[in-house]
Design brief:
Layout (H helix, E strand, L loop, with lengths): L4 H5 L4 H14 L5 E2 L11 H12 L13 H15 L8 E4 L1 H13 L5 E6 L3 H9 L3 E6 L8 H7 L4 E7 L11 H13 L3 E5 L20 H5 L1 E6 L12 E4 L2 H13 L6 H12 L3 H22 L15 E2 L4 H7 L4 H12 L1 E2 L1 E2 L9 E4 L4 H16 L3
Parallel strand pairs: 1-10, 3-4, 3-5, 5-6, 6-7
Antiparallel strand pairs: 2-8, 7-8, 9-12, 11-12
Helix pairs in contact: 3-11, 4-11, 5-6, 5-10, 12-15
The structure holds pyridoxal-5'-phosphate.
EC number: 2.6.1.-
Family: Belongs to the class-I pyridoxal-phosphate-dependent aminotransferase family.
Cofactor: pyridoxal 5'-phosphate
Length: 393
């Protein structure tokens, strides 16, 4: 069979791949600790699950909703954005998607033509680059400094007349970095000046630790907000990865195009999941806070332990999301392996700990370790990695 160039060029998601391998090993009875995964380990809060059960029992399953989502859900999203950010979006400026991943995919489809360039920080989430390529566009990497953040100097180096979009993810996967208000203002003003559309991927916006402050690009000022497309979802904050609800908020004419694409691709996100998302967004957010505190405790416990693993070096302490991103170049040397990818394979096969190769995020020589798992498993995982590395000392 001859495949399209698109299909030939797309790479499978490294995070999904490592996680599937770990899950397959666990199914075979191997005691693997999975730090490869980007999903909270908590069960979805009961009040959210109950809303879905009620929707099923009352027969809200045998109809399509509008492709862009239930009006009640859009209202709940608009209300949440207003409460969290103080920014108002009428519901014709909101579209519900099958996870934030679909929101980002459909945006690339709506904005990117062949030859169009999309600026992506290095490191950044695995799917941005592939989604740009799937749209026929050109991903252009913007280098970051020691703090893993881009600056307007880096943007000046990357911009040209084909540049159309810049993706900002704060708190950032895989580093946990948060851009300050001033940094967002500088980046936002730069984008306005260069006529570059900003995509703010705020999926980790509620997972912020140790008194750090999160701001969304849409909160900085009206001009920046008008140049920004907001992407978010319920997966990470409400432990709802399996429900697949995300959303995009932006200008009415953009949302209209997004909706047309969705109407021919996904149709609507699962009706039951939409009712669950309404309950999540309308809830008093106390469950989010409980989970946030648990992540914070895990970060504060695990960070100093990972720092002590031979050959692992952490830069600034993560401020949000639920990942550590150690530089393992010294560990690669110590272990006598060729790459971070080989180290990941050895850790999985020999230490039975799954982590993701930094190369998947554009940074070979690094690993991404998720701390969205119990403190007990985290401690055991660090012990195993430490024991693995100790054999080379
Ligand atoms: N954006 C980032 C930075 C992510 O890490 C993820 C998930 O890992 C997503 C978007 C997609 O989330 P979902 O499709 O579950 O809403």
């Amino acid at each position: 069979m001859k495949f399209s160039d698109r299909a030939m060029n797309v790479e499978p998601s490294a995070t999904v791949k490592v996680s599937n391998t770990a899950k397959a090993m666990i199914r075979k009875g191997i005691d693997v600790i999975n730090l490869g995964i980007g999903e909270p380990d908590f069960t979805t809060p009961q009040l959210i699950a109950d809303a879905a059960i009620k929707a099923i029992k009352s027969g809200k399953t045998s109809f399509y909703t509008p492709a862009s989502g239930l009006p009640q859900l859009k209202e709940a999203i608009a209300e949440r954005i207003k409460k969290d950010y103080g920014v108002i979006y009428p519901i014709d400026q909101i579209s519900v998607t099958n996870g934030a991943k679909m929101a980002l995919y459909v945006l690339m489809q709506a904005l990117v033509d062949p030859g169009v360039e999309v600026l992506l920080p290095r490191p950044s989430w695995v799917s941005y680059k592939q989604q740009v390529l799937l749209a026929g566009g050109k991903p252009v990497i913007v280098e970051t400094g020691d703090d893993f953040k881009i600056t307007t100097d880096g943007l000046d180096d990357a911009v040209n007349h084909n540049t159309k979009v810049l993706v900002i993810n704060s708190p950032q996967n895989p580093t946990g970095t948060i851009y300050s208000k001033e940094e967002l203002e500088a980046i936002g003003n730069w984008a306005v000046l260069h006529n570059v559309i900003l995509i703010a991927d705020d999926i980790y916006g509620k997972l912020v630790y140790n008194q750090n402050q999160f701001y969304s690009l849409v909160q900085i000022n009206d001009r920046i907000a008008a140049s920004t497309i907001l992407v978010n979802g319920v997966s990470k904050a409400y432990s709802m990865t399996g429900w697949r609800i995300g959303y995009v908020a932006g200008a009415p004419e953009l949302i209209s195009k997004v909706n047309s694409i969705l109407s021919h691709t996904t149709g609507n996100p699962a009706t039951v999941s939409q009712y669950a998302a309404i309950a999540a967004l309308e809830s008093d957010q106390s469950e989010v806070e409980t989970m946030r505190q648990a992540f914070e405790q895990r970060l504060n416990t695990i960070y100093p332990l990972v720092e002590k693993i031979p050959g692992f070096k952490l830069r600034a302490k993560p401020e949000g999301a639920f990942y550590l991103f150690p530089d393992v170049s010294a560990a690669i040397q110590l272990a006598g392996v060729q790459s971070s990818g080989e180290l990941v394979d050895r850790l999985l096969q020999e230490a039975h700990v799954a982590v993701v190769d930094g190369a998947a995020f554009g940074m070979p020589g690094y690993l991404r370790m998720s701390y969205a798992t119990s403190l007990e498993d985290l401690s055991t995982a660090v012990e195993r990695i430490t024991a693995f590395m100790n054999q080379f000392l």
